[in-house]
Amino acid sequence: MAANTAACGRDPPTSAEVPLRRQHIAASQRFVAMLLQMRENSHGLAEWRDGMSRIFQAGPTAAMRTSGALRDAEFYQLIGKCGNDLYEFSSMAAHIAKTTDAAEHKFGTRYTTVSGLLDTEVHAATTKRVDLSSSSGSRNATEDEEQLSQTFWKANQVEGIVLSHTQLFIHLPLTMYVQDTLHLYEMLARLNSEVSRGVPGAEGPGANFPLSRQLRAVLDQGLQPYSWLVFSIMGALQLLHRAKRKLAGEFGDGFPLGVLATTPACPHECRVHTPLDPTASASDRFGLGLMFRGLWVPPCVDEDRARHQYSFNSFSRTLGGALFVLNQYARVLPLAQRPDWHVLLLVGRNWTNIPWMMPVQLFTGSGVGESEKELIAPPFMTLSFEDHLELNTSMPTSELDMRAHLVLEWLGLPSGWEACSTKGSSLNTLGTLLGPAFMKLMAQSVDLFVSPEDDWVPSCEKGPSVTVRFISSMDPRPAVRRLFDERERPLFAFPPGRPEKRRTAKTLRQASCAPSVESKLTPDAASLSSRSRQPRDSE
Description:
Blueprint (H helix, E strand, L loop, with lengths): L2 H5 L10 H24 L3 H13 L2 H6 L23 H19 L1 H18 L14 H12 L12 H14 L3 H11 L1 H4 L13 H9 L7 H25 L5 H4 L30 E6 L6 H5 L5 E4 L2 H12 L11 E7 L9 E2 L8 H5 L1 E4 L3 E5 L5 E2 L4 H15 L14 H9 L2 H6 L22 E12 L1 H6 L21 H6 L12 H10 L7
Parallel strand pairs: 3-8
Antiparallel strand pairs: 1-3, 2-5, 4-5, 6-8, 7-8
Helix pairs in contact: 2-22, 5-6, 5-8, 6-12, 8-12, 17-18
């Protein structure tokens, strides 16, 4: 067990952790119930269209003015740093059109196979459910796509880019997620707020609503209903997972992961290939399918937050990608600017065998996509760790070396590989395996986070302390897992629209909070819901 773990008093699980687990389960059920109600209660595709388009209607300056109310203020420190070039729909649509054109050129039939199957999945979900006009009569797909895209255009705009259904339902939400924009940080801040997580006694926007309605109240506060972005990301992941299962079963060679995990505009020499990609060598860190997630954390790791995830989970396929993300946050997060700054590095293996993990590098485009090499898993994942493998910079070198040897065995390297490595040390061998930055990270080199051109100066001369944990398992809560079952109806399979009962935009805004979902909660979750509305006990 790591030295700092003992110092922080981390003990085996106790009965005190049971309420936290129940809180996580209950929050996952409320999350899924919200999504299903949004699917069932919406009036065809029109409500999705209106909700998503409203996210773009407020410009970034106006949106920023409404952003400071949430309690998790660290996300809002990022708002002034993030790019706004893709904030508006016009620039986002141009980026998506350019990305898909580049993918068709780069991958040829391999991309068109993926794209064709996604077209089929989107068509199957939305056919005879798309009802955008009160007039009777059928409309062909081109007219539907044009009418959908026009909803997102600015007022009085005569011409604009028309996106296909696949580009609107899959590319648009995932591009909004992977790009470094205000949309991403707004959504993350709202999902991670104490009110959204159902923390008993939490204060802030949405806290005065019944627990079953708090999540959507938080997501839809202010000018933009981000519940529809969360809904769309989950819907896009559903369809991607359906397509992946079908193509993997047909080809059996890791396809289409190699396409989704590559930036179309990226030169071939910059690629980090995926295991089982028939077009690649085994240069993805020796075919181990490693993945990395770096987090700025307090000196003592919050075990509940480390093991129970409430938001989408992003990993990188290289250590350099995880360090790139840490660097982005280091300049704005208060946690990263303390003298006792601390990095928690999570390392997983064989990501291609984790059914919940999906590469999304294709949707990023050049630049960030090549740096981060992103994978995404849905919210409400539960993680367990190989505690005997944990590494920490406070450990003596001998203990680090002993544990590094166990890590190499856990990774399942070919027999004799370690003996053939240079310098003899198991820790050095692990550094060779994880990437050149690993040894600098464990040596607490400040150069990883500060460059000579930086105007930011850390509060201490040494780099952050580092805790490295190796993931034993990661699975979503059952409610989320069921969304990805083959028999589950896609979120985008809305009920047929009812033009004669269509609600006005004003009515839609008034109905932005979902009705009660308490009937869908388990007894434990309902009990927690009741208790959380009671005043917090005085201390």
